[in-house]
Amino acid sequence: MRRSFGTAVAALALSLAVSLSGCAADSRGVDSTDVDPAGSVAPREISWLLSRPADGAVIRTMRELGDEYAKAHPGFKLRFITTPDRPSYIQKYETLAAAGKLPELFDTDATPFARKLARHGRMMDVSKLLHSLGLYDRYRPAALDYQRFDDGSLYMVPFEYQAEYFWYNKALFRKAGVHVPASLDDFPAMCRALRRAGVTPIALDGQDQWPLERYAAYQPFRTAGPDYVRQLKQNRARFSDPSGRKSANWLSALGKAGCFQKGFSSVGYADAQNLFTTGKAAVYNIGTWELPSLATTALDPAVRDDVDFFTLPVTEGSATAANEFVTPSGIGMAVNSRTYDPLVRDFLKFALTRYPAKYAAAGELSPTSDVKTVLPKNATPLYARAVATAGKVGKETAVPWDTQLDPTSNAKFQQNLVLLVQGDVPPSSFVSTMDSVIGRNAPRYAK
Amino acid sequence: MLPSRSKLSVAVFLLPPLLLYGAAVLLPIAQSLFLSFFTWDGISELRFAGLSNYAFMFTEGDFWTAVTNQLGYLVVCLVLQLGGGLVVASLLISLTRGRELVKVLYLLPAVISTVAIALLFQRIYSMDPAGPLNQFLGLVGLDGLERPWLSDVHTVLTAVSAPEGWRFVGLYTVIIYAALLTVPRELEEAARLDGANQWQVFTRIRFPYIRPVWLTTSIMAVTYAMRGFDIPYLLTNGGPGQSSELVTTYMYKTAFLSTDYGYASAMSVFIVVESLVAVGLIVLVLRRKAV
Q1: Top CATH class, A164-326+399-446
Q2: Contact yes or no for A408 and B241 at CB 8 A
Q3: Which of A11, A299, A384, B35 is the most exposed place for a label (fewest CB within 10 A)?
Q4: What does DSSP say about strands A164-169 and A281-287: parallel, antiparallel, or unpaired?
Q5: Do A98 and B114 touch (CB under 8 A)?
Q6: Which of residues 68-87 of A touch B (CB under 8 A)?
Q7: Is A28-159+331-373 in CATH node 1.10.10.10?
């Protein structure tokens, strides 16, 4: 207790100390558009501050590429500093950004904070960089679009491509006598039927907060399209608008229908997944990054043949198509303009050119469209179907709201969502609270 | 009086720790105080904000919710740590065998890492699947009381405070036990011969004797509880809603997630002032009673 709080105060003080010593050392490094700076390649150690699983395919692939590059460039080393836990990572990354100590490469979503960094010229223009390296056209448009800021500018390189599905247990659906919901509005009835059959309808990792926030984004994405959240985060749309109200009412209905497991707000990622993979919960909303757990022989044989998936259902008069849903390209990698030099450019050229083929060979979906995913030997037929479905998505993407709202509004949104779904606050109160929170914080953050 | 050379020696030995203390404790407090008068997001230039961070703090509902929660957290911690510590220490005094073992068992939680404690209590409070607490309630026929302790807005604050209180019961037990050992036995025996009961012996003899130690432990427990942070943060992150949000967790989120360093600094100044006021009150109350 003491140490953690002390660390927080010390970090706060450190941030201040840096600020007092001249917080804006914006004059160092290169201009964010100078993607091909003059000079020779001088090998040295470069670092990548990232928020990805240490044993994941992205790090494994990039580590191999770093080693290959080091063989040809003695003295070069790519150091990975990973913090997979996202909230902890964000805290670390924002504190280092405030201290002007970000390394050569660092992970970030297209958040309002990252937008500020880009505005201050602290990140390289990735659109220009990829064009200059001759790689831009290899990327899936959806993978690049996910990384863009609202004005269309691109400052992050995608390293993955994912599609989020509703995985469900066919046997439990049969037991409850329910079918795959044709509309989002069918969810409450589906949950009630599953509850009556003694089944937990939906497994939810409430502790990490973003999974529940996905549900909040679904109704507005269907009724108004992806533009709603872009307007909302700038306080140009309101929660009291029809899309916001519909979302609040739907979430409240999900809670009343007992859709999520009891005490979901304190259930973590592994426990939620466990509920589904052990056949205790009927539905689990997660992305293709979990394919190795859900669509290979690693899955418990007792449920393996019963697992299937469906995509985000539409609604009546839906503004977006059935093949448009959450298809993120994961957290992106930004290139620090203060430390950018010919070496960083040369390494990125080397790595990004070879990365897609190596990554796809590991059974992953590449952010580029020029390579095919190699199915693992232990894949079930579901694996190939999930990969194929991800390749047939429409133009619009349901962007995760946690990457869109300003951090303060997002934190309050996540807190109040839990209360709404638990039935502790009515939808009307939730709507008015969120309108006032966003009304106060969005303009402040836009400055 | 120390000779001048000895004074110099004392100064030489005292100065480094004093400087270290100043750099590690006083400087951050001064810096936080300074920053609380500014608006700063970590990227843009500092903007002087006068007292606006404080004005906002004193009118913000979420901040006062956090203050109220912190007081609730404080009460639970004090009851468990000081109340529990006093009871266990008093019982230990009457034990004739196995004292050391009991002391070690009570002290054990104080050396377990915070993260392990958080994980342990997450399991204990779990509802789906049922954790030990809910299983026990079901076994003894109190299944009506079964609930997701960490998700219920009515129980979560107590649920996150209890592990913190439990963790340090042993520490305060040992301190109070050591103080109780200094109470002269002959005085207690004389009182008993005069007809004093256990309660009278405790209130008239034992407690007055241990009052200085009680003052110290009270200050320790209160200031630590006011800075309580990690277990609530790890168990619920302040949720559900703001039901277990403490001033410390709120300050942390404001600084490191919302990157509103100015406002977070105002809150940290509040915590410092709040702790100083609490210590002042404890000293005042206990000294008055001693007179």
Answers
A1: alpha beta
A2: no
A3: A384
A4: antiparallel
A5: no
A6: 87
A7: no
Indicate the residue of A9, A87, A98 with minimum beta-carbon distance to B42.
Answer: A98
User: Are the CB atoms for B41 and B253 separated by under 8 Å?
Assistant: no
Cα angle, residue A203 at apex, residues A250 and A381 outer, rounded to 5°: 110
Smallest Cα–Cα separation from B179: which of B101, B98, B86, B286? B86
| Closest residue to B42, CB basis, from A15, A267, A418 | A15
Boundaries of every domain in chain A: 28-159+331-373, 164-326+399-446
For chain B, which residues make up each domain, given as ranges?
62-290
Q: Count interface pairs A-B at CB distance under 8 A.
A: 167
Contact check, Cβ <8 Å, B32/A407: no
Instruction: Return all residues near B18 (Cβ < 8 A) that are at least 6 apart.
Output: none
Interface ipTM: 0.79
**Residues 361-420 (A) with a CB less than 8 A from some CB of B:** 406-408, 411-412, 415-416, 418-419
Kindly state whether A206 is in contact with chain B, defined as any CB-CB distance less than 8 angstroms: yes
Longest dimension (CA), chain A: 70
Measured between CA atoms, how close is B199 to chain A, in angstroms? 35
Burial class (CB in 10 A: 0-12, 13-18, 19+), A73: middle
pLDDT tens, position by position, for chain B (291 residues)?
556 667 888 888 889 999 999 998 899 999 999 999 999 888 888 899 999 999 999 999 999 999 999 999 999 999 999 999 999 998 888 887 888 888 888 888 888 888 999 999 999 998 877 899 999 999 998 888 999 999 999 999 999 999 999 999 999 999 999 999 988 889 889 998 998 898 898 888 888 889 889 988 999 999 889 888 999 999 998 989 899 999 999 999 999 888 899 999 999 999 999 989 988 888 888 777 665
Q: How many CA atoms lie within 13 A of A39 on its CB side?
A: 15
Taking the Cβ of residue A338 and every Cβ of chain B, the question of whether any pair is shorter than 8 Å is answered with no
Q: Judge whether A28-159+331-373 and A164-326+399-446 match in fold.
A: yes
- pTM of the entire structure? 0.84
Which residues are A314's β-sheet partners? A183
Write out chain A residues lying below 8 Å of B238, CB-based: 415
The reply to whether residue B42 touches residue A5, judged by beta carbons under 8 angstroms, is no
Q: Which numeric CATH code is attached to B62-290?
A: 1.10.3720.10
